Amino acid sequence: MSRTDRASRVVAADPATVYGALLDRESLETWLPPHGMRGRLDRWDPAPGGGFRMVLTYLDHDEGPGKTSAATDVVDVRFAELLPTGRVVQEAVFVADDPSYAGTMTMTWQLVPIGDRTEVTVTATDVPPGIDQAAHEAGIASSLANLASFLEGTAT
């Protein structure tokens, strides 16, 4: 697997605030699920080598199919790198029987200050071939829009 998916957005918050939202359990549950999904964290260890398990549920079950079940995607994430100066690297493995979702996808969250705002770029490498590229990039963009709304105090 060598595919790379990417999305970026400028957020009206400083990098430290964005970094905090990446490592706060309640925040992550609120903004990370893309449009049309809700999320729940079953495990949480915000330290290098730690991670989390997120269960994403489609709000409209007909919009699936999920990777883990008809209505859910479950992903186990390990924090490979946590740099408060502006970088979070996650290794993500989908819980799925379908081999087209197998493998470890790396998600790199890069935070670049732009005045009092932050450009957040998410780069996903080694994306499993079963994940549709356009849908995945739209999902990342949706999560970034949620992050911006969450941090800027506007509705998602």
Structure notes:
- With 156 residues, this protein is of the alpha+beta class.
- It has a domain of 103 residues: START domain (Alpha-D-Glucose-1,6-Bisphosphate, Chain A, domain 4), CATH 3.30.530.20.
- The chain is built from three helices and seven strands; from the N terminus they run βααββββββα.
- A seven-stranded antiparallel sheet has the order 1-7-6-5-4-3-2, with helices on one face.
- The protein is globular.
Write a short abstract of this structure.
With 156 residues, this protein is α+β, with helices and mostly antiparallel strands. The chain is built from 3 helices and 7 strands. Strand 4 (72-83) and strand 5 (87-94) form a beta hairpin.
Strand content: 35-45%
Radius of gyration: 15 Å
Within the largest sheet, what's the order of strands?
1-7-6-5-4-3-2
In CATH, the topology of the domain at 4-33 and 80-152 is named Alpha-D-Glucose-1,6-Bisphosphate, Chain A, domain 4
CATH class of the domain at 4-33 and 80-152: Alpha Beta
Average pLDDT, to the nearest integer?
92
Task: Please identify the structural class as seen in this structure.
Answer: alpha+beta
Largest sheet: 7 strands, antiparallel
How far the N terminus sits from the C terminus, by CA atoms, comes to 33 Å
Could you list the spans in which at least 5 consecutive residues all have pLDDT below 50? none
| SS field, number of helical segments | 3
Share of helix, binned? 10-25%
According to CATH, the homologous superfamily of the domain at 4-33 and 80-152 is START domain
Q: Overall 3D geometry?
A: globular
SSE order in H/E notation? EHHEEEEEEH
User: What would you say the CATH architecture of the domain at 4-33 and 80-152 is?
Assistant: 2-Layer Sandwich
Total strands: the figure is: 7
InterPro entries: ASHA1/2-like_C, START-like_dom_sf
Pfam families: AHSA1
Organism: Streptacidiphilus monticola
Protein name: SRPBCC family protein
